[in-house]
Amino acid sequence: MHSEAITVEGDLHEAVSVFVKLRPRLFGIAYRVLGSAVEAEDVVQEVWLRWQHTDRTVVVSPAAFLSSATTRLAINVAQSARVRRETYIGPWLPEPIDTSDDPQAGAERAEALELALLLVLEKLPPTERAAYVLREAFDYSYPEIAQILGLSPVNVRKIVSRARKHLTEEQRGSVDTAEHRRLLDAFVTAARHGDVASLEALLTPDAVSLSDGNGMRGAARVPVLGRARVANLSTAYPRFWPTVEVRRVEANGRAGVLLYRDGRASTFMTVAATHRGIHQVMWVFNPGKIAALLRSRADTREATPISV
Q: DSSP alpha helices (H): ranges in the chain?
């Protein structure tokens, strides 16, 4: 009886060890499919519960089993999340996550991690989204993805190709991280000084500003389109910038800023840009999403203040 107890305890210890090692990958898959750190954490927790109650002696590859369970569960959650987001007030943006400690967020490559790309991924059906994520970010083979999704390898190739084409058309070729940081810093400096002319010089003619507040007062409930309108909205100089402290953070593999009011983080902001300039400004006001970002920063260094 005693030896059986030791065996069970040892088996559970190994199960925990395997799961902890794979956890960053599982979170990375779920987060990219869902665009929500909170929902991704829920998926990973559910997979852990299933892993505990699985007959692990018959599992040939724990990595394949856990990745498959995570992907399928994330697809199910994404399908129900799409219905919930139809009632969301104003633009919906993915939840930003801190990536200063894990620039790839658990992946082989950092693909499908930037907020702007995650936002485009939302336009794809969940299964197509998952196939793209598994192939491009985690380097799974087409047969492996086919097994996870219950499709043929030929079908998976078509799905990934279609998704890649769709995303390439939308993305327009992002600038590198150094140029992105330079553009973001220049944008924040101009906005804080109410320098509309400098802001317009940074923006593309078709620039858009998206504010995620789920109905919060002060958050625009529709996308703001056009260089002049985005520049004017972003200054709001007498009312907004003098009351906040700006701290630089790294989120989703890119530079971003957290805006603090009265010592509390209230807003996250970042931009998307190409060689033509900044074409998308993203503001996250939703307190739940700010809280999720702060939680993801819990074990990392403090945000860096930006001086003017």
A: 2-34, 37-52, 62-85, 115-121, 126-136, 142-149, 153-171, 177-192, 196-202, 227-235, 287-296
Q: What are phi and psi of 307, to 5 degrees?
A: -90, 155
| pLDDT tens digit at each of 308 positions of the chain | 444 444 445 578 888 999 999 999 999 999 999 999 999 999 999 999 999 988 888 888 999 999 999 999 999 999 987 777 778 899 999 999 999 888 888 888 888 889 999 999 998 999 999 999 999 999 999 999 999 999 999 999 999 999 988 887 666 678 999 999 999 999 999 999 999 999 999 999 999 999 999 888 878 899 999 999 999 999 875 678 888 999 999 999 999 999 999 999 999 999 999 999 999 999 999 999 999 999 887 644 445 455 44
Model's pTM, two decimal places? Answer: 0.89
Residue written as tokens 């990745």?
A: 67
For Cα atoms 248, 88, 159, give the angle at the middle one, nearest 5 degrees: 85
d(CA 278, CA 206): 9
- Rounded to whole angstroms, how far apart are CA atoms 118 and 277? 20
| Whether 160 contacts 135, CB under 8 Å | yes
Classify each residue of 130-168 as buried b or exposed e, where b means 16 or more C-beta atoms within 10 Å of its C-beta: bbbbbbbbbebebebbbebbebeeeebbebbeebeebbe
Q: What type of residue sits at position 128?
A: E
